[in-house]
Amino acid sequence: ALHEVDTVVVTDRRFLFLVPRLRSRLPVVIDWSDSSTLHQWRQARSHVRQGALHRIPGSIKRLVQAFIQEAYYGRCSTTNLAVSPADLEAINHLTGRPAAGRLLLNGVTTGSPPDRSGRLASRLVFTGAMDFPPNYEGAIWFIDHVLPLVVAHRPDTTLVVAGRDPVRKLQDRARPGVAITGAVPDLQAVIAQGGLYVAPLVSGSGFKNKVVEAIAAGSFLAGTSMAVEFLPPAFREQLLVGDTPKDLAARVLTFLENPAPFEARLPALMKTVAEEYSWTHRADEFLEILNEGMGGS
């Protein structure tokens, strides 16, 4: 019975239709996670950059649907949750209710870092589900535009792209020095065998688990602004960030030519991940948000 419920948390968008009815009786929290509006907007821009004009109508249709959904139901809820500052800003803008918006970053499971004794200093690693557009689009962009600039200065540089279900156009880019592995038994072990983790994301939104997990595995990171936008500024400043092929290649080369100063930052970064991104810490924050919502209903 509803009178025994303190708060309803909606995490599945299929049940958003219940929000207006429930809100008249008790607090309702919508856990949006990512803003689909932001995601689809960035996806449409990515299609334009790629010249994939045939994919733009589908992105625009999904963009309009997401806009209507997030704007309407986000105005009906007590609280709107998002997992990154960029997604929260988008939700707040769509709803016009910034006071109802709350940031709740994801957590990650950390443990003892994997053995890195056999790592190759000149190996770059990128991981993720490679049928997910932001991942494979980022990998293709890096292979086509960034890696050649790196290899021109460091011919021994190799790249490993690891993750399940790589799309055909990513598989087609496999060649000597570029391994597209597909699913692997242990992504953390793959990360640990590389000298540098790269996160060349040029689309998408949300919390990038792969970024935090790479650092937890003891790997330094170079990536785009989009890959690290969810991190606090002080954390981002410790990483290597570049958004054009030339800039990102320069950041990668800076690390490859002298990794010691950057790897010296890793213990502090790993400590921050273990303390600030634990699921226990996130659960405490979630409970605070729920208590706040119940008090304000």
Structural features, described:
This protein has 14 helices and 10 strands. The protein is of the alpha/beta class. The strands form 2 sheets. A 6-stranded parallel β-sheet has the order 7-6-5-8-9-10, with helices on both faces. A 4-stranded parallel β-sheet has the order 1-2-3-4, sandwiched between helices. Helix 1 links the parallel strand 1 and strand 2 (28-33). Helix 3 (56-76) packs across helix 4. The protein is globular, with a radius of gyration of 21 Å. The two termini are 19 Å apart.
What's the short version?
With 297 residues, the protein is α/β, with parallel strands linked by helices. The protein has helices spanning 19-23, 36-50, 56-76, 85-95, 133-153, 168-171, 187-192, 209-216, 225-228, 233-236, 245-257, 260-263, 266-276, 279-295, and strands at residues 8-10, 28-33, 79-82, 101-103, 120-127, 158-162, 178-182, 194-199, 221-223, 240-241.
